[in-house]
């Protein structure tokens, strides 16, 4: 894996830090807080979004809706059904994360269910009965300690001003 060049500087770092505290914070407030011109802040945010470095989005906590039965499932999916299966997973409201992989498992999904019975049926009936799909292993997740929506780059990831 190649190391990414540091395309962002300390102003970008400060903007990201401010938005991570409150993504609804106005450009004017961010500009005042970091002592930078409003237009500069607006332009920088637009660039971060355009570069797919930053997404300003709503994050919904599934547990607020009772989706507390969580499993990470590693699957081996035959090439002939791979794309169709991925589309089925995207349409399934219980699947909240899909990633391709290397090794014995070539697809990883994170699932959330309202109860253990639905999770059990999905892992032990639905998936094994799906043509071209094999469950390699799975992990029942009793508690998420740290999630990607909490991750932030460190100051050293940004060029000095």
From TrEMBL:
GO terms for biological process: response to amino acid. It comes from the Bacteria. Residues 8-68 form the HTH asnC-type domain. One of its GO terms (molecular function) is sequence-specific DNA binding. InterPro entries: AsnC-type_HTH_dom, Dimeric_a/b-barrel, Tscrpt_reg_AsnC-like, WH-like_DNA-bd_sf, WH_DNA-bd_sf. Keywords: DNA-binding, Transcription, Transcription regulation. One of its GO terms (cellular component) is cytosol. This is Lrp/AsnC family transcriptional regulator, regulator for asnA, asnC and gidA. It comes from Alkalibacterium putridalgicola.
């Amino acid at each position: 894996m190649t190391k990414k060049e540091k395309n962002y500087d300390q102003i970008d770092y400060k903007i990201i830090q401010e938005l991570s505290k409150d993504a609804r914070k106005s450009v004017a407030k961010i500009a005042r807080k970091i002592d930078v011109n409003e237009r500069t802040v607006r332009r920088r945010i637009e660039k971060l979004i355009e570069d797919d470095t930053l997404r300003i989005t709503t994050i919904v906590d599934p547990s607020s809706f009772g989706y507390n039965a969580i499993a990470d499932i590693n699957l081996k999916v035959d090439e002939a059904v791979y794309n169709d299966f991925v589309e089925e997973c995207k349409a399934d409201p219980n699947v909240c994360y899909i990633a391709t992989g290397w090794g014995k498992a070539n697809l990883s999904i994170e699932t959330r269910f309202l109860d253990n019975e639905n999770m059990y049926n999905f892992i032990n009936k639905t998936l094994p009965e799906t043509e071209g799909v094999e469950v390699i292993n799975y992990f029942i997740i009793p508690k998420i300690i740290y999630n990607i929506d909490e991750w932030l780059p460190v100051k050293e990831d940004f060029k000095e001003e």
